Amino acid sequence: MLPKFPGDKPRDLSKPLEQIRILVDGRLDGQRLDLALTTVLTWRSRASIHRLIDGGLVQLNGRQSPASRRVRIGDTIVVDVPPNPRATPDPGAGVEFPVLYEDQWMVVVDKPPGMAVHPSGRHLSGTLLHALHRRYRNPDDPSRDVVPRLLHRIDMETSGVVAIGLDEQFHQLVSRQFEDRLVGKSYLAVVHGRPTPDEGTIDRTIVPDKRSTVRLKLTTTDAPDADGLSAVTSYRVLRSNARYTLVELHPKTGRTHLIRVHMASLGCPLVGDKLYGADETLFLRQIDGTLGDEDRRQLVLDRHALHSHSLRFHHPMLDREMTVVAPLPRDMAALFGDDRA
Predict the structure, then answer these.
(1) Running DSSP on this structure, what letter comes out for residue 53?
(2) Whole-angstrom Cα distance, residue 134 to residue 153?
(3) Rounded to whole angstroms, how far apart are CA atoms 123 and 116?
(4) pLDDT digit string (tens) for 9-28?
(5) DSSP of 232-283, one letter per residue?
(6) Is residue 143 classed exposed, middle or buried when 0-12, 13-18 and 19+ CB atoms within 10 A define those classes?
(7) Is residue 155 flagged as an active site residue?
């Protein structure tokens, strides 16, 4: 996420980014100015950071400073973002998604695969949050200004249910349900092969995969003394054919890549999974932008076949339990000869 300066009003993401203010904290304390900015503005290279500094677009405590100046806790860094000639003046334009449920306190959408949920890294426009700001923000009219706040997130490649608060009190109350694991989540995944048995619970600790050349890759272990994170997922086979199986999954713990790692541990990786499938070099080629036609044929889908299917929670303003469901998307349904889902 883009940094937010304490006390600032929520940024209006329906408009292009013009300025970023950063309050130096303990993470940045003592770093050179250029390195501190590289740490925060992760989507910019160090060379582009230097161009901003040399161009007079960066101020430290109200003054232009050299890249080598050390920053301290409490310092303020202001970056004027130069206009991108290729950037759209309306970052949320053209972003479409089905609305599954909406009232004055919240909206639940069915996020398409390939759409980032929030701006970060290389995704500084065209995200779900940009489109939501375009739909609800009216900063020039405070009586009509609504700030959408994400209640949870899913990966860019994952499709399905995403819930957003439109009221600050509602957001706080339901966020607490997420934190306390009182929200019921179900996912649908299409995997290679068929898990055995057809129904069960995967209770395997997740640890870094030290055998992998990809630093963020994870794996599972059954070692009782493993220094990892406990992870539990229940699953149930819904249908299958000669190549693939549609599985319903209920994560019991919130862990990075939980479903993908657990299904791979059963020998049934998700269709389209570049990192946990048969060849992790596909992930590296995707990062480099060098995936070829043969790679795509091997993957079958351009994204991993994971769908956020349903969300169950207590609506504090209506005082009732709610379940919102997003239907199986066409690309996953087509793997079973059904493209009408």
Answers:
(1) H
(2) 19
(3) 7
(4) 777 776 777 788 899 999 99
(5) EEEEEEEEE-SSEEEEEEEESS--TTHHHHHHHHTT-PBTT-TTTSS-THHH
(6) exposed
(7) yes
- Axis-axis angle for helices 46-54, 33-40 (nearest 10): 120
DSSP state of 142: T
Q: What is the pLDDT of residues 43-67, one digit of tens each?
A: 777 888 998 998 889 999 999 999 9
Query: What are the tens digits of pLDDT across the range 110-127?
Result: 999 999 888 766 666 778
Please answer whether residues 65 and 54 qualify as being in contact, where contact means their C-beta atoms are separated by less than 8 angstroms.
Answer: no
**What DSSP string describes 193-212?**
S--SSSEEEEE-EEEE-TT-
Output the CA–CA distances (angstroms, integers) from residue 211 to 99, 207, 245, 265, 293, in the order listed. Answer: 42, 11, 28, 15, 28
At 78, which helix (H) or strand (E)? Answer: strand 76-80
Enter the DSSP assignment of 317: T
Query: For residue 70, what is the DSSP state?
Result: B
Name the residue among 71, 68, 12, 8 with its Cα closest to residue 40.
71
Q: Which ranges of the chain would DSSP assign to H, the alpha helix?
A: 33-40, 46-54, 128-136, 168-179, 258-265, 281-288, 293-299, 330-333
In the chain, the amino acid numbered 115 is M
For residue 191, give both structure tokens.
């995997």
d(CA 123, CA 92) in angstroms, rounded, equals 12
Q: Are strands 19-23 and 76-80 parallel, antiparallel or unpaired?
A: antiparallel
End-to-end CA distance of the chain: 33
Least Cα distance to 186 among 132, 118, 235 occurs for 235
Of the residues 155, 203, 295, 302, only one is catalytic, namely 155
What pTM was estimated for this model as a whole?
A: 0.78
